[in-house]
Specification:
Number of domains: 2
Structural class: alpha/beta
Shape: globular
Bound molecules: pyridoxal-5'-phosphate
Largest sheet: 7 strands, mixed
CATH architecture of the largest domain: 3-Layer(aba) Sandwich
Length: 372
């Protein structure tokens, strides 16, 4: 038996769409790029979408176009993927970690307010595991302190808050299409924004600093090569065209896990939207992350791995990573993050996971706990 943690879902039509690009001379900066950007902007309901080589590139250019640099503090969760904090370091700015809500695992206005200082300039607001962060109070707080907001929606394509898609609330929103995300372009990302000046700068920065009216060997800005090839854009267009079905499949799998785990009170499933008034909106299921009793996770991982079931402790806190632990911000106090991160385990989760596999994984989890 082998049940992977995630598995991309690529149709024959998608393979054909990629091959069709290879029969044209437009492999980069061609018509599929513009088409993908227009489709994505339309899906989120944002005026501008800029496709990039990765979500990480989007976070990096996001901070750069917002003017974040040395001496500036950027508030973000420690309980997330390391790319968010790294993008702050790329800009020589200072990451300041705020704690998370124990239910939604997201930053809250309260946890953000506790770490605001006169140097705070921006918030990277992660919609963790596809749960929409409680945006209204956070937007209000950001307005009061003149903080810019980057929504890291890399795990939250299609998640909604107040009936609107996340990613479109902040100064800009970042999405990723790495193969473990709900839709993939192999590698890739998109930034959405309402701000035409950010969009213009970002198009220049991804393309070696060439502004709109620059020639091919004219470079107004210090840019990067963060372009997304048309080959990948063609895959993105096709994947995006069936996003509703993809998100529905993932919700089906999440519901099946929830049912399958009911007999086992030691395994805490992720909250379902209806289960709590604190989740305001629609979850986009990115991963299935259960919580285990303290002191059991390592042995559960061993037991599942031995049976060919992949699992991973999402996420080790960033402030405890070797790269960050040496220059930990003084007075850092992240009790919820540190507690949760010792107990969370992501189990296999992807569009075509069968109910039988869901039951197999759930029973293996329960047996592993029983044997401890
Ligand atoms: C996947 C992910 C990223 C990075 O995206 P890449 O496309 O792999 O660079 C950033 N933030 C979060 C929360 C992610 O899950």
């Amino acid at each position: 038996m082998n049940i992977p943690l995630s598995r991309p879902d690529i149709t024959e039509a998608e393979i054909d769409a990629v091959v069709a690009v290879l029969r044209t001379p437009h492999l980069s900066l061609g018509p599929k790029l513009a088409e993908f950007e227009a489709a994505f902007a339309g899906y989120i309901g944002a005026p501008h979408a800029i496709a990039l080589s990765s979500g990480t590139a989007g976070l990096h250019l996001g901070l750069q176009t917002l003017g974040i640099g040395e001496g500036d503090e950027v508030i973000l969760p420690s309980f997330t993927f390391i790319a968010a904090a790294n993008s702050v370091l790329y800009q020589r700015a200072t990451p300041v970690f705020a704690d998370i809500d124990p239910l939604t695992l997201n930053l809250t206005a309260d946890s953000i307010e506790r770490v605001i200082t006169p140097r705070s300039r921006a918030i990277i607001l992660v919609h963790t595991f596809g749960y929409p962060a409680d945006l209204d109070p956070i937007l209000k707080l950001a307005g009061k302190h003149n903080l810019r907001i980057i929504e890291d929606a890399c795990e939250a394509i299609g998640a909604e808050y107040g009936g609107r898609k996340v990613g479109g609330f902040g100064d800009l929103g970042v999405f990723s299409f790495y193969p473990n995300k709900p839709i993939t372009t192999g590698e890739g990302g998109v930034v959405v924004t309402r701000n035409p000046s950010i969009a213009r700068q970002m198009r220049a920065l991804r393309n070696q600093g060439r502004m709109e009216n620059d020639g091919w060997l004219e470079h107004s800005l210090l840019g990067f090569n963060y372009r997304l090839p048309d080959i990948n854009c063609a895959l993105g267009i096709a994947q995006l065209s069936r996003i509703d079905g993809i998100l529905a499949s993932r919700e089906r799998v999440a519901n099946q896990y929830y049912e399958a785990l009911q007999p086992y009170p030691d395994i805490t499933p992720p909250p379902m939207a209806a289960a709590s008034g604190r989740i305001s909106g629609r979850i986009s299921w990115f991963a299935y992350v259960v919580r285990l009793p303290h002191g059991t996770r390592d042995r559960v991982v061993q037991a599942l791995t031995a049976q060919g079931i992949d699992c991973r402790p999402y996420f080790p806190p960033i402030h405890l990573q070797p790269l960050y632990s040496t220059d930990t911000a003084p007075g850092q106090n992240l009790p919820v993050t540190e507690d949760i991160a010792l107990r969370t385990l992501a189990v296999p989760f992807f569009n075509h996971l069968s109910n039988e596999e869901v039951l197999t994984v759930s029973e293996a989890l329960a047996r592993a706990l029983q044997d401890i």
